[in-house]
């Protein structure tokens, strides 16, 4: 369904059925995908929304439970805190995209479930020793692909694959990290897909909460410029385990 | 009467305040419309907890998207309802509640001579008291067509669910709804 050869009438019919609610899930998604770049459809929908709004009065009000407003404010507070953390970072692009990190949160549950089973196999950390974990997820699908684990005090991280990673024959996976205040990501070397590896962080400061880790697709011998050049395959932030 | 609508509530101003990050404006909007929005969502979803989730998501979205509200394209109240209804309808369609009647069953209904079945002139909705400006236009629709529109908008029924509810052929219901929308548009113009 494209706007190019769509008559004004059929566009208005579509808008009317969209607002009325009779479109299928698929058709609704198609309409919603068009909205950002289809002003005519947006306007037609806005007019239908105004026309049919009085029908909303036919549903009797239902008193919300007292808990609903506090629940809304809790969500807003949590988003606000996340936004402030994100704003504190200074680099550009995906590293700082609030939208990206928000959408990532939606995919976080699957990662947490996998993490739970991974961590259950680990010995309990020594008391007082902070442990960090990072779930690296694919930016698009948000499917978890790798987990990074680190014991504070031991200046090394362990990178463990959670799923198979496809890498083209002429490319390599390069592992990067960046903490707040660093000028840019630092390479942690090339990674073989599907293999767990322990990586010393000898020359780096101790891990910090929220420190970024990512795997990018680079030339066989690694990025020629010492900074990520290829697409991000997996990305995540360090979380301090209690 | 906690549900009473404050008649001169300024929705556009409240949304503007939300865009400026002032939380009390969102709370005022919630006090004003929360019960009605929950009523709308619950009627669509037929599930109290699910409807509460939708109203929660709607107010989070209102807060986050307040800056994108454009008063030249519609009323603030309409915007708030659209956000809520869209979330509810997306949820409803995505979970494919439509177990009642599939297209095959509907086609079978089509095949049968159902003409006698929908000579029903009774109203399924008590719409006269509350339909406001659209009331006279609804009045002009045949009752069965009016019911189609209201089953869809108020109860979130799909074409085939309405066909099943009325015992009418699916194609007929689709045509009724299409023509009813056109008639409403002309009447309200």
Q: Strand pairing plus helix content of chain B: what structural class?
A: mainly alpha
CATH architecture classification name of the largest domain in chain B: Orthogonal Bundle
**Widest beta sheet: strand line-up of chain A:** 6-3-2-1-9
Q: Rough shape of chain B?
A: globular
- On the 0-100 scale, what is the average pLDDT of chain A? 80
Give average pLDDT of chain B, whole number.
84
Number of domains of chain A: 2
Number of domains of chain B: 2
Description:
The complex is a heterodimer of chains A (242) and B (189). Chain A has helices at 8-20, 25-34, 39-52, 68-87, 98-120; strands at residues 131-137, 144-151, 156-161, 171-178, 186-191, 197-200, 212-219, 232-237, 239-241. Chain A has 242 residues and is α+β, with helices and mostly antiparallel strands. Chain A folds into two domains: 8-58, no CATH class; 94-241, Immunoglobulin-like (Sandwich). In chain A, strands 6-3-2-1-9 form a five-stranded antiparallel sheet. Chain A has a four-stranded antiparallel sheet with strand order 5-4-7-8, with no helix packed on it. In chain A, α1 (8-20) packs across α3 (39-52). The longest helix of chain A is centred in the middle third of the chain and has 23 residues, at 98-120. The model of chain A is unreliable at 124-128 (pLDDT under 50). Chain B is mainly alpha-helical. In chain B, 65% of the residues lie in helices and 0% in strands. Chain B contains nine helices and no strands. Chain B has helices spanning 11-19, 23-45, 48-65, 76-94, 103-111, 135-139, 143-155, 159-166, 170-188. The longest helix of chain B is centred in the N-terminal third of the chain and has 23 residues, at 23-45. Chain B is globular, with a radius of gyration of 19 Å. The two termini of chain B are 36 Å apart. Mean pLDDT of chain B is 84; it is low at 98-102 and 105-118. The interface between A and B is large, with 41 and 63 residues.
């Amino acid at each position: 369904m494209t706007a190019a050869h769509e008559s004004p009438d059929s566009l208005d019919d579509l808008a009317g059925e969209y607002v009325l609610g009779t479109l299928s899930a698929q058709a609704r998604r198609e309409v919603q995908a068009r909205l950002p770049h289809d002003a005519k459809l947006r306007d037609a929908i806005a007019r239908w929304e105004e026309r049919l709004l009085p029908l909303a009065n036919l549903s009797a009000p239902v008193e919300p439970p007292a808990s609903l407003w506090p629940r809304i404010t809790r969500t807003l507070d949590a988003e606000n805190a996340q936004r402030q953390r994100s704003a504190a970072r200074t680099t550009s692009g995906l590293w700082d995209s609030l939208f990206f990190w928000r959408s990532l949160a939606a995919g976080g549950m699957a990662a947490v479930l996998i993490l739970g089973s991974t961590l259950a196999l680990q010995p309990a950390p020594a008391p007082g020793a902070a442990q960090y974990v990072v779930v690296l997820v694919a930016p698009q699908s948000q499917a978890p692909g790798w987990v990074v684990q680190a014991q504070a005090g031991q200046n090394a991280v362990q990178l463990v694959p959670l799923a198979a990673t496809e890498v083209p024959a002429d490319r390599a996976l390069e592992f990067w990290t960046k903490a707040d205040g660093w000028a840019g990501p630092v390479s942690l070397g090339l990674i073989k897909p599907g293999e767990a590896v322990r990586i010393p962080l000898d020359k780096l400061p101790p891990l910090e909460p929220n420190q970024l880790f990512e795997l990018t697709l680079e030339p066989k011998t690694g990025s020629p410029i010492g900074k990520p050049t290829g697409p991000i395959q997996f990305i995540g932030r360090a979380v301090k385990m209690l | 009467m906690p549900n009473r609508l404050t008649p001169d509530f300024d929705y556009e101003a409240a949304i503007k305040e939300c865009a400026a990050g002032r939380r009390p404006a969102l709370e005022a909007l919630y006090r004003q419309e929360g019960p009605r929005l929950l009523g709308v969502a619950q009627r669509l979803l037929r599930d109290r907890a699910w409807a509460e989730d939708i109203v929660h998501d709607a107010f989070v979205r209102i807060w986050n998207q307040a800056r994108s509200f454009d008063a030249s394209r519609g009323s603030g109240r309409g915007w708030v309802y659209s956000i809520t209804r869209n979330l509810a309808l997306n949820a409803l369609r995505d979970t494919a509640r439509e177990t009642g009647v599939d297209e095959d069953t509907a086609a079978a209904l089509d095949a049968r001579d159902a003409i006698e079945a929908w000579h029903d002139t009774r109203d399924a909705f008590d719409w006269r008291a509350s339909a406001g400006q659209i009331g006279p236009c609804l009045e002009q629709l045949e009752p069965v067509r009016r019911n189609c529109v209201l089953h869809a908008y108020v109860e979130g029924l799909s074409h085939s669910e309405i066909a099943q509810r009325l015992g009418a052929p699916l194609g007929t219901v689709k045509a009724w709804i299409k023509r009813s929308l056109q008639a409403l548009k002309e009447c309200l113009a």
